[in-house]
Recover the amino acids of this structure.
């Protein structure tokens, strides 16, 4: 089946009240990305010709988040079949191929599973249902199979007989339906059931009545889990992280304590990367080959060049571009800065809105003062510069190649190439003054204590 013959409807009109949140349910994140984006990413991998998201009223935030995917609004929440009908107008002329129906709150669904469903469609089933066997089936629709093993009907938990409730195979909620039959079948779905809703699941019984084949593709229960509550969200996160850690190990990274490393949906790791315990990757991080990240480092929106060493306790914020073989040590924060090859900033520094040339050494406690309370300014440090400890570089300021800045300097004007710059109060030494000073202070203290008595 050509990918141009794939389309999708993602249902996201649920209120998500159990999240107890001002944020719409599907925008809650797993691995640093809203749940619905995980679902859309799986669909996008199939190169779907159209993908429409059904949202509830007053959910502009969802529409904005899923753009450019179009949205349609389901003003009344009358059931999953009703939600699908809301999208019908967006499918004019799409009458060949497969339409997927997915839920926006199942972030762990994979493109591989959707491809297996396309294969089942290609094998002749008009309707393919994603099935799973949960430990506790209560609440899920049960998949009723005929003697031939083909799917005959889905019965919702509330409407099921005791015998039907004993069935362990459940509806995961994802469907792949023949584009030509989807809407004609959905139009025939009524709401004569315990909940009085238009159940999309009735499509199976209707298809069978028309002599169409329906099939089940089974997946692991974890992959199809829906997230209705914060507890569900935490469980989905744990499942996602477990899988990502395994992938990192399989692809040639050493994770000293895998369970304490947290990845984002888009973390990119090279080979022979070593990651210590308690390292957290926010979104947008690329780590190149041979990098060593020591414990308790937090990286977000950063790129770390080949062979660089980061941490322990380093913080790389968005726009941190760390050069090959650079060293970023403990309690060093880097933001929106490009650090060249071999740069060393090993202790207690803030480097923000800066360019630092190759081979430069940034001494302990150096701060780029990038913000004047109103605007951000850049600090440009050349190659092979030595910045002494506890230096404040008041931006905008440039330090020329090869310069040496003395410890404790507050640099407010540009430093020429190869200059030695010392910008601090001069030291004053008074020879043999310490002893008399001590005697004077001790006498004063004795006088005070006598007065008190
Ligand atoms: C549904 C299935 C059930 C399956 C279960 C898997 C139906 C009738 N039942 O039940 O067989 O085992 O999912 O999780 O489909 N939604 C809308 N508009 C609506 C109703 C629902 O957009 O009017 C969306 C919800 O946001 C949600 C999804 O559809 O993402 C599922 O809806 P929900 O009512 O939670 O269905 P379940 O009772 O879980």
């Amino acid at each position: 089946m050509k990918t141009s013959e794939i389309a999708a409807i993602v249902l996201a009109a649920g209120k998500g009240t159990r999240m107890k949140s001002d944020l719409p349910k599907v925008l809650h994140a797993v691995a640093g990305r809203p749940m619905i984006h995980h679902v859309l990413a799986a669909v996008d991998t199939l190169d779907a010709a159209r993908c429409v998201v059904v949202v509830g009223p007053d959910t502009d935030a969802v529409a904005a988040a899923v753009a450019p995917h179009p949205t349609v609004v389901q003003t009344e929440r009358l059931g999953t079949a009703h939600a699908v009908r809301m999208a019908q107008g967006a499918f004019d002329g799409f009458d060949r191929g497969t339409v997927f129906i997915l839920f926006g709150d199942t972030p762990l669904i994979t493109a591989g599973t959707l491809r297996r469903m396309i294969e089942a469609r290609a094998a002749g089933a008009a309707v393919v249902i994603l099935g799973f066997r949960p430990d506790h089936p209560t609440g899920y629709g049960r998949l009723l199979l005929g003697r031939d093993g083909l799917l005959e009907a889905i019965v919702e938990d509330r409407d099921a007989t005791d015998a039907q409730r004993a069935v362990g195979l459940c509806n995961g909620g994802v469907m792949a339906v023949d584009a030509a039959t989807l809407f004609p079948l959905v139009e025939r779905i009524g709401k004569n059931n315990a909940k009085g809703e238009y159940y999309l699941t009735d499509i199976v019984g209707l298809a069978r009545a028309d002599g169409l084949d329906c099939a089940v593709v089974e997946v692991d229960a974890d992959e199809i889990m829906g997230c209705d509550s914060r507890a569900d969200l935490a469980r989905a996160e744990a499942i996602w992280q477990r899988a990502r850690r395994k992938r990192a190990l399989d692809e040639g990274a050493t994770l000293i304590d895998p369970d304490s490393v947290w990845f984002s949906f888009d973390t990119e790791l090279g080979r022979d990367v070593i990651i210590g315990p308690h390292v957290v990757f926010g979104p947008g991080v690329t780590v190149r080959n041979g990098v060593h990240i020591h414990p308790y480092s937090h990286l977000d929106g950063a790129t770390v060049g080949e062979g660089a060493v980061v941490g322990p306790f380093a913080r790389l914020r968005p726009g941190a571009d760390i050069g090959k073989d650079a060293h970023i040590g403990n309690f060093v924060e880097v933001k929106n800065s490009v650090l060249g090859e071999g740069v060393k900033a090993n202790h207690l520094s803030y480097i923000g809105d800066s360019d630092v040339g190759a081979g430069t050494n940034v001494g302990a406690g150096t701060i780029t003062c990038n913000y004047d309370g109103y605007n951000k300014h850049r600090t440009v440090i050349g190659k092979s510069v030595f910045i002494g400890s506890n230096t404040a570089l008041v931006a905008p300021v440039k330090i020329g190649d090869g310069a040496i800045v003395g410890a404790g300097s507050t640099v407010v004007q540009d430093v020429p190439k190869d200059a030695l710059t010392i910008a601090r109060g001069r030291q004053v030494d008074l020879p043999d003054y310490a002893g008399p000073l001590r005697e004077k202070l001790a006498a004063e203290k004795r006088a005070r204590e006598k007065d008190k008595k």
User: Anything to note?
Assistant: The CA atoms of residues 369 and 397 lie 10 Å apart.
